[in-house]
Amino acid sequence: MSDQIARLSPLRRVRLRPDPWSLGALVIAALVLMPILSVLVLALTPEENIWPHLISTTLPRYLGNTVTMMAGVAVLASAVGAGAAWLVSMYRFPGVRWLEWLLLLPLAIPAYVGAYALVDFLEYAGPVQTGLRTLFGWHNARDYWFPEIRSRGAAVLVLSAALYPYVYLLSRAAFREQSGASYEVARALGAGPLALFWRVGLPLARPAIAAGAAIAMMETVNDFGVVEYFAVQTLTAGIFSVWLEGGNAGGAAQIAGVILAVILALVALEKVSRRNLRFHNLGRHHRPLVPVPLEGAAGWAATAACALPVATGFVLPVGVILSHALANSGGWADPGLVRALIHTLSAGGIAAVLTVAAGLFLVYGVRLTGRALPRLLLPVTTIGYAAPGAVLGVGLLIPMAAADNALADTWVGLFGVDPGLLMTGSAFAIVYAYAVRFFAIAQGAADAAMGRIAPSLPMAARSLGRSARGTLTAVYLPLIRTSVGTALLLVFVDCVKELPATLLLRPFNYNTLATRVYDKASLENLADAAPAALLVCLVGLVAVGLLARANR
């Protein structure tokens, strides 16, 4: 046996050595997957098993509300997003070129900001009810009926208004990729506008609509600010209740495990629903769609139909927040706002740089190595984007707190000085959670950008003596710097808006813009929350502008 090993060729011996790129890729994948695995371990081995209590009391309510909200948001966001995409793709009407991009603007508004603005606008002391009382001479709430604002239905409306652009963006691309010949044949057979949509457009765009609806449902599960403000008890709200109010980390992990199961079931259902759907365009026969002009009342009706989601999801929240921000000019000089801005820029910036760097390293390492394990782990690392922030908070805080305490005790025993909580007592845990949550964005951008580079270029660099690192810096990075910059910006913007993970992982007296908005608005102090909310929205607008530019 020893003779056989001795006779191995030098190349074979080199392949048996640890590959630093493969090892690095495995380490990054392990760090990304660790919070998810931690949640599963904690859920299966809790210190206090309250699973029977959860099943017999609150879990059915949490799960029922979550599923109901997911279904409601999926239906409403799909109807609005796909309907608007159909109108701007198939017809020409007044303002369509502006509305085509304005329909993306609600992506810049965090859903919790929309919730605060809607309640402020429609509550008893708000402008709507005040105007109604003045107009009709009513004196108090007993004189008239007004729908309940803080309800599950209102939460579905707010989330749908914030999330329909996901469906709209994917549906619009699907409609525009369809051949105009299909519609010409349908019209020749007597199909009217409604039949064209139901029998031709909708079936062909169904995969894109399903994908957009799945993203909207995942974001609904992740939401905490809206459901907490409207007092809707979902699974995510249950994590905060069981852990922070009940003091049971194991129970919170068990609820987090249920959320993971719901998310995985949703992803599997979405993939199965599209498994047998295959639509192809033959290049020789493909003709682009020719939009049909709409004039008169029909054209203005289409304009109003597309303008309504923009008004609900963008104009209303921004208008309410802006009015409060301008009325409270002294709030802009509040030291708390300045600290929250610094924390947001530092934590989000560091997380964006680390996430994109790790995504580049992982994708490049997988491309270099011939080993199967890193290639298998590459798509698995995107699961963090599907995992809600509250789940990541549970998966990170409990093991990190234990590690922090063990490290502090060891340090005190060795040196007699207490170093404090190095990970959970700083922004480290928040940055880690951001990196895991949005790693899929960085990884996807790096993989797509590197895939567009001809293989002959890096091969030529290697043949000229460049190392793997030299090829990355001299060939890949100059060619993909635009994609890298886009990924940095998108990850940063998502970090700025992230609320559940930040709430769970922030140290004492540590605020970001998102948590400051939540803290102030939860105390019904929208005036002080407005400056921070406006800053969050402005950052989101940058990302929407970039997205619109990329999809022109």
TrEMBL record:
Its main location: membrane. It is found in: Cell membrane. Residues 63-271, 341-548 form the ABC transmembrane type-1 domain. PROSITE patterns: ABC_TM1 (PS50928). The chain crosses the membrane at residues 21-46, 66-89, 101-119, 153-170, 250-269, 297-320, 340-364, 376-401, 421-442, 472-493, 529-548. The keyword Transmembrane applies. It is a multi-pass membrane protein. Gene3D superfamilies: MetI-like. Keywords: Cell membrane, Membrane, Transmembrane, Transmembrane helix, Transport. PANTHER family: IRON UTILIZATION PROTEIN (PTHR30183:SF2), MOLYBDENUM TRANSPORT SYSTEM PERMEASE PROTEIN MODB (PTHR30183). Belongs to the binding-protein-dependent transport system permease family. This is Iron ABC transporter permease.
